[in-house]
Write a structure and sequence with these properties.
Number of domains: 1
Helix content: 10-25%
Structural class: alpha+beta
CATH class: Mainly Beta
Radius of gyration: 16 Å
CATH superfamily: q2cbj1_9rhob like domain
Strand order of the largest sheet: 1-2-8-5-10-4-3
Number of strands: 10
Strand content: 25-35%
Length: 194
């Protein structure tokens, strides 16, 4: 039997999501808790799709495995546009963001401890990056660490089920894992490079 997806339900954003900011000098990270209204549906979807290490569109430095599949992600447009224009300076327009979500796939990073590069890095596929943690709370450990231009740690955002983070790609950051975690299980996060 063929399964169908209703993206307007699966990827529905929670209107009551709570937002706060990690702000240090010129580095800002937007953190939104309870981002999706139906995060367990998204997690179930992820668990039903085989992952691959074949990631030619992501470049040779990509770590771990991925899911990259075209679903209708346009329901995220207004929420991301509102966060971007509220917290950042950008030359992007609402029509640019709308076009982005019209064409961007559902992308999920799936990594283990052995995949992680311990060095901070920057992303380079656009102006903004966003991750949405989709491990349930019992599986969560660590998070994402952010650094200034000198490589000094300025703060961590803890991993929490259904937590979204949004930041400029030029900010040094890295996956933060506690020792002994994600050895047999996987760190799961939806990724957007805007």
């Amino acid at each position: 039997m063929i399964k169908k997806i209703d993206e307007s339900i699966v990827f529905q954003v929670n209107e009551d999501a709570e937002e706060f900011i990690l702000d240090h000098e010129n580095i800002r990270v937007v953190v939104v808790d309870d981002f999706y209204k139906n995060p367990h549906m998204i997690r179930d979807l992820i668990m039903s799709i085989p992952v691959t290490k074949h990631t030619p569109s992501r470049g040779s430095g990509y770590i771990g495995s991925t899911i990259d599949i075209l679903y209708d992600m346009r329901g995220l447009t207004s929420y991301y546009w509102n966060y971007i224009k509220k917290y950042f300076i950008t030359e992007y327009t609402s029509s640019y963001i709308s076009n982005f979500f019209n064409n961007y796939p559902f992308t999920v990073n799936i990594i283990q401890n052995s995949d992680v590069d311990p060095r901070p890095h920057i992303d380079d596929a656009g102006q903004f990056a966003s991750g949405i943690y989709l491990n349930i709370d019992d599986e969560c450990s660590g998070g994402t660490s952010f650094y200034n231009e000198s490589g000094e740690l300025i703060g961590n955002v803890d991993m929490k089920f259904n937590r979204m983070i949004l930041y400029e790609q030029c900010v040094l950051h890295k996956v933060c894992l506690e020792e002994g975690t994600f050895i047999d299980d996987y760190r799961i996060s939806q990724q957007l490079f805007i």
